[in-house]
Amino acid sequence: MTQSDKTVDLAENLWKRLRSGKPPSGRHPQICGDIPMAIKRDGTWFYQGGPIGRIELVKLFSTVLQRDEEGGHWLVTPAEMARIDVEDAAFVVVEVRREEGAENTDAGPVIKMRTNIDQWVDLDENHTLRVEEDSTSGEPSPYIALDRGLEARLNRASFYQLVDWAEEIETDDPAKTAIGVYSHGRFFKIGTVENDEK
C-alpha cells in the first residue's frame, strides 16, 4: 500500500466517524492516544512520515482539529479523539489584505488573513494577534487566534505587510511607543520601540 493509499484510507475512516453521529449513550469521545500524523512548522501535514499531498484531505482533517488548554492538538470525532504532533501552529497565514470602509466596521479598516488551507479570517476581538520574540535572536513570531483554540502563524511576507501598515500610539511608559495595526476598530500591537531621549 502506498503512502497515498494509506492517507486515503485514514480519510475515509475519519469521514465515516464524522457521519456516525453522537457517541454511543451520549458518552464523550474515547481517547485513542497518539496517531502518526504531524504538522510541520511550514504548515505541511504528514501521515506515517510522508506528506499529505491532497489539500482536500488536509481540509477534511482540519475540520475536526482542536487544541486543548495545555497546547495539545487533537483530531476529535463524535466517537474518538486522537492526538497529533504539531511543531508550531496548526496553520500558516500566507496572505493578508486590508479593506477600507468595509461593511459593519464604522468605515474603519478590516484586515483579513488567508491560511494555507484557504481559510479567510478577520483580525478582530475573537481572532486576535499575538507576537512572540525569540529570547536569543529577538526575531518575532506572530500568530492569529482561530476557532477551537487553534492558531495560525504569519509567514514572513504577511508579517512584513502588517509592519508596513503599522501605526504608532503612546503607551503608559513614556520611554516606549507601541506599533500595531487597526482592524474592526481595535488596535492590535505588533511590538514596541524605544523613544529617542530628548
From TrEMBL:
It comes from the Bacteria. Residues 28-89, 90-190 form the DUF1285 domain. Signal peptide: none annotated. InterPro entries: DUF1285, DUF1285_beta_roll_sf, DUF1285_C, DUF1285_N. This is Proteophosphoglycan.
